[in-house]
Design brief:
6-stranded antiparallel sheet; 5-stranded antiparallel sheet; mainly beta; Jelly Rolls
């Protein structure tokens, strides 16, 4: 396992070793001991999976407020996704900036998204399955999100979403929620 830093402090790409032989492939999606040895300890509270049937399915932008803020280690185990981390931290020099990376089973890359960040992805292929190792329990009263097309963030998606949840379509714009973000992310 190798960590690669990104333009956003705390967001890392994890390059996983892929072993291949006549049977197929093997890779370790999450290795807490290896991440800790690389200086990035990450506990696992939940391991979640989602499968999206259609290319162009958008999930997110999701996050949780403290004390249930989450660190996520995100991997794609079938298909392909374009994964996005959005910096929402109140005092960050990169607040409202984003980082993206294509994740596939073949490229062996996972994304570490720390607390204080939003997370989203759009599927690039049908039948894409994502595994998330999450550091905090899901708490609906601390859940929040942002619209995929929020102009404050300005994500340039590689394709137009064709499938989204009703909840993700209805998030209020972040410019109207700055005070909420500043007080709840403390």
């Amino acid at each position: 396992m190798k960590l690669e830093s990104t333009n956003l402090d705390g967001v890392y790409l994890v390059h996983r070793k892929i072993y291949q032989d006549e049977r197929g492939t093997f890779t370790r999606l999450f290795a807490g001991d290896e991440l800790a040895a690389l200086g990035h300890p990450t506990k696992a509270m939940h391991i979640n999976t989602s499968t999206s049937v259609f290319a162009g399915t958008l999930r997110g932008i999701h996050f949780q407020y403290p004390p249930y803020s989450e660190t996520k280690v995100v991997s794609c185990v079938s298909g392909a996704i374009w994964d996005v981390a959005v910096d929402l931290r109140p005092n960050s020099e990169t607040r409202f900036q984003w980082f993206s990376k294509t994740l596939t089973p073949k490229n062996g890359i996972s994304l570490i998204i720390p607390e204080g960040f939003g997370h989203a992805f759009i599927t690039l292929e049908p039948n894409s399955t994502v595994v998330y190792v999450v550091s905090a329990a899901y708490a609906i009263e601390h859940e929040s999100g942002a619209r995929f097309d929020d102009p404050l963030i300005g994500i340039k998606w590689p394709l137009e979403p064709v499938v989204m949840s009703e909840k993700d379509k209805k998030w209020e714009m972040l410019a109207n929620r700055i005070n909420e973000l500043d007080t709840r992310f403390v």
